[in-house]
Amino acid sequence: QSALTQPASVSGSPGQSITISCTGTSSDVGDYNYVSWYQQHPGKAPKLMIYDVTNRPSGVSNRFSGSKSGNTASLTISGLQAEDEADYHCMSYRSGSTPYVFGTGTKVNVL
Amino acid sequence: EVQLVESGGGLVQPGGSLRLSCAASGFTFSTYVMGWVRQTPGKGLEWVSRITASGDTTYYADSVKGRFTISRDNSENTLYLQMNSLRAEDTALYYCAKKAVANTKYFDCWGQGTLVTVSS
Questions:
Q1: Cβ contact (<8 Å) for A46 and B111?
Q2: In this complex, which of B44, B95, B104 lies closest to A3 when CB atoms are compared?
Q3: Residues of A in contact with B106 (CB under 8 A)
Q4: CB distance A53 to A66 below 8 Å
Q5: Over 70: is that where the pLDDT of A110 sits?
Q6: pLDDT tens digits for range B71-108
Q7: Is residue A98 scored above 90 in pLDDT?
Q8: pLDDT at position A1, please?
Q9: Which residues are CB-neighbours of B86 under 8 A, at least 6 positions away?
């Protein structure tokens, strides 16, 4: 099964907004509102940031927001901060024998 | 506090076997779907397997189907992954992950991972 496509890296200056895309197909991102996003700092476990496309878990900053259009989901980080520098992974539920697929991962650099 | 602690990783030769464990605490283990996700060094995440709360239904990625077996012991709050016929491409950091409440499609808590290296 093919991974969802994410840009390898996205950069921004403190205070700016950045958006990370996650492109799938009509069998996953396009067919279900079950996209989640995970933040991962080096050497650490992934942390849930967004679930069901747009929902933020308790404790996650409202600077993080999610959206979806067609087969592409997006994570936007507004008011970029140094602590946001990390890898970000999307995940989608999908039809077929393998129920979940992850994205290729995006490294966010804070300049 | 929810905690997931993996163990059992190590160096194994191609064709060999390993059994990973994940000790859970801080929540009612027997009521949650659990899963395994792996991460190849420097690369992305790959969903591996999941098991229902009761343990009666399991699911696997095509890449491990027929070689890996997920199981759980709800009396011991422990999740397992039996890995047989290991290949070099199974080399990865293996995470144990907890699903959120029933019928959700995301993981709300992850362990720190245990490293599996398949090499001769």
A1: no
A2: B44
A3: 34, 36, 48, 51-52, 91
A4: yes
A5: yes
A6: 999 999 999 999 999 999 999 999 999 998 878 899 99
A7: no
A8: 59
A9: B12, B13, B14, B15, B16, B17, B18, B67, B116, B118
